[in-house]
Design brief:
The protein is of the alpha/beta class. Helices cover 27% and strands 32% of the residues. It contains 4 helices and 11 strands; from the N terminus they run E-H-E-E-E-E-E-E-E-E-H-E-E-H-H. The strands form 2 sheets. Strands 1, 2, 3, 4, 5, 8 and 10 form a 7-stranded parallel sheet that branches. The chain has a 4-stranded mixed sheet with strand order 6-7-9-11. The relative contact order is 0.13.
């Protein structure tokens, strides 16, 4: 696999726009992924484990199992192979972000990165889909809708 070193955000932006399926060494203190549409099989490696990599999401539907109903317009990034692996970086976001992986195997490729769990919520699409299928076995769509509506009402009335 081809490897390139970038020292500035401008260099990273250029590599993301022109290259695919390469390893990028982040030889600087702070970088951000400006647009997830640019992601095509990259591996990011920081110069140190404190190299900051800010993720920027896009509006989308939540894949979180705990979401009620069709939660949308959340800040989300679903790498889905666009980022093959991340090593020796500290991953954060300027605003709360849902980072959606297809499964835990995809997430393991990010294992040597530190993720700011105050800003980033990790979810697994396969597990959420399995959960939703399991939850829907004993109720009709109308019953699930009424249950979700009731839960939302109770949550709004009895906020702690």
């Amino acid at each position: 696999m081809k490897t390139m070193t970038v020292k500035t955000q401008q260099q990273l932006n250029q590599v993301l726009a022109e290259e695919a399926f390469i390893t990028i060494i982040l030889d600087g203190d702070e970088f951000s992924i400006p647009d997830q549409k640019l992601l095509t099989g990259f591996t990011f490696i920081g110069k140190t484990p404190t190299t900051l990599l800010k993720l920027v999401g896009a509006p989308g539907y939540s894949f979180c199992k705990k979401s009620k109903g069709d939660v949308h317009d959340i800040n989300q990034l679903a790498p889905l192979g666009g980022i093959a692996a991340v090593k020796d970086v500290y991953i954060t976001s300027e605003s709360t972000l849902e980072l959606a992986f297809q499964n835990r195997e995809e997430y393991r490729n990010w294992g040597s990165a530190t993720i700011d769990r105050n800003k980033i919520n990790i979810v697994f699409i396969d597990e959420t889909m399995d959960y939703l299928i399991e939850q829907g076995k004993d109720k009709s769509p109308a019953e699930r809708f009424v249950d979700d509506l009731f839960e939302d009402f109770i949550d709004s009335v009895f906020k702690i």
